[in-house]
Amino acid sequence: MNGESMNVAAENSVPMTAQERKVTLANKKKTIAQSQRSVVVALDDYKKAAKKLQKKANVNAKLQAASAAKPRNYSKRNKAELAQAAYDAADAEVKAIAEDIRVKMEDVAAQYAELREILADKRKLVLKSETEEADFVQYVEVHKARIEGTYGIVLPEEPAPVEEEPVEEEKKEEQAPAFPFPPYGFPMYPPVYNIYQPAAPAPAAAPAPAAATETRPEVKVLPVNVDISKAVEKAVNTALTRFASEFETKLNDYIASMPAPSGLSSATVKAYEMEVQVSEDEKFLMDKLAAMVENIKAINEKMLELNDAYADITDKQKEISEQQKKTNDIQRYTLREQQGVQVNQKVIGKDQIAVVEEQTAVAEQQKAAVERQQAILEAQTEVAKDQAMLIDAQTEISEAMKSIASAQNDIVTAQENLTKSNNENMEAWKAVADMQNELNNQQKETANAQKALARDQKTVSEKQKAAEELQAGILDGLKTMLKDNKSLSDALERERAKLQKKADKKAEEKKVEEAPVAEPVTLEAAEPVETVEAEAAEPVAETTPEA
Questions:
Q1: Which of 15-29, 211-225, 313-327 is least confident?
Q2: Which of these, 59, 195, 205, 212, has the minimum number of CB atoms within 10 Å of its CB?
Q3: Are 229 and 85 in contact (CB under 8 A)?
Q4: Same domain (yes/no): 446, 307
């Protein structure tokens, strides 16, 4: 936009011809139409994001209530954390789209201002542009308000302007500055969303509508970026640490509660408690516990690697988005340049050199677009490598889980042997059974985390597929542009040949006129001249609609 405004200023500094003025107005109107279409598309995205936010808010409210009812239930607490993270992500998306709409509306206003600068000497057209701009602004505000009212998005209203009274300078310094509001009623501070349903009123009292709006619960949500993978890692680490500590405590209590060896009194056993030999079964159990701890550490390391890989994938996706945005900007600029070339075909006889320069600039832009596409392909290749690394990490995790399962089988065997030899100690057996149930629950939660990882991987593959489709569309557009350039070059060559042919015919006519009048050849030479002029005039009429 800044580049276009500079061009308009440069054009206004030098008096423009009628043809240049017409071309400039046509290009400016096309730019305004494109900006308005982008605002309409952003409103559609805003509606989808608001609907998604409403669903996330309902799910989050239910899971938060369930977690508050049972605060010691780890599964419900974990689901509540994941729901809160999903809600925060949807909320951030809604705010980003609202900010995008505000920026695009400012762009539309700037485009209309530049149009009015060009039409400064035509009052009727200036008033018409102001009416069109006001109608479009009203349409956007009404559509946005309808979306916010439908999906429960409450935004603070813009305060009425206050007329400043003439006061002294000291009083003005003491007065607090007014909060700066941008145009079109988009506030800069975070909006307030109603994410909870209002409490049901008591059956005895029927509050008025105004009171209901005053008591309606509102929660001010601040923009927070939450990484779900870190939440999963934290939950898994907490659960495994708690399990290891509880298992070690219960095992020590169990060993301490074992009966003393036969032939020794209780006092003797207490005196030499540190020198009691440990049985083979107990050594085997301790070794298995140490192996389990090592496996848990390995799982934690793999989870850290997974988180790093996810962070790398997120960075690559951002780079791909930036590259695609740059490619789209280049294509829009190329389209505007091509439209200017098509309009200037009416004066192509005088501006052939300028047309060649424009074609050279378009070729350079196309070359830059091809380079952008190559960069996108390289980024996609890196994303594929990261996905392969994720698959390898998941394979290693599955192998570690298999080793844990085998260790569990060994623990069960050792527990059976201990049960046969110590039938009197039933409480220790119950503790081991509780420990086994807790381990099974942890396995289920680990499986759920792996399913979530698989879903994220599927989402990444879908985004990659969408990027490939967009790349195919860009290639088709480039092919079409090359065909159009070729047809333009052919038309220029034909026009040049026709002009040369017409010049030759005029030279022949001049020679015929200079010849003696008595010769009958003069009449025969005059007829082809008229035929040639008619034939030369026909292609000009055919090329005019194409321009």
A1: 211-225
A2: 205
A3: no
A4: yes
In a domain, 269, yes or no: no
CA distance 136 to 105: 10
Cα 123 to Cα 130: distance, rounded to the nearest angstrom: 11
Last residue of a domain, one of 471, 491, 511: 491
What is the distance between the alpha carbons of residues 27 and 321, in angstroms, rounded to a whole number? 28
Helix, strand or coil for residue 163? Answer: coil
- Flag the least confident range among 150-164, 201-215, 277-291, 357-371: 201-215
What span, in angstroms and rounded, lies between the C-alpha atoms of 246 and 206? Answer: 54
For residues 457 and 452, what is the distance between their CA atoms, to the nearest angstrom? 9
Give residue for tokens 């074609």: 359
467: CB partners within 8 A, 6+ apart: 320, 324, 376, 380
Residues 501, 470 contacting (CB under 8 angstroms): no
pTM exceeds 0.85 for this model: no
Helix, strand, coil percentages, rounded to 5, for the chain? 80, 0, 20
What are the Cα distances from residue 371, in Å, to 220, 330, 367, 473? 45, 12, 6, 16
CB 229, CB 306: distance < 8 Å: yes
Give me the CATH number covering residue 49: 1.20.1050
Element (H, E) at 435: helix 426-514
Tens digit of pLDDT for each residue in 168-184?
444 444 444 433 434 44
If we measure between CA atoms, which residue out of 232, 405, 400 comes closest to residue 304?
A: 232
Helices 2-13 and 74-118: angle between axes, nearest 10 degrees = 10
Q: What are phi and psi of 192, to 5 degrees?
A: -110, 125
Q: Is position 540 within any domain?
A: yes
Tell me the C-alpha distance between 17 and 27, whole Å.
Answer: 15
In this prediction, residue 526 carries a pLDDT of: 42
Model confidence at 82: pLDDT above 50: yes
pLDDT at residue 466 greater than cutoff 80: yes
Query: Could you tell me which of 531, 532, 511 has the C-alpha nearest to residue 521?
Result: 511
Poorest-pLDDT segment among 9-18, 137-146, 395-404: 9-18
- Say how many residues make up the chain: 547
Does some domain include residue 171? no
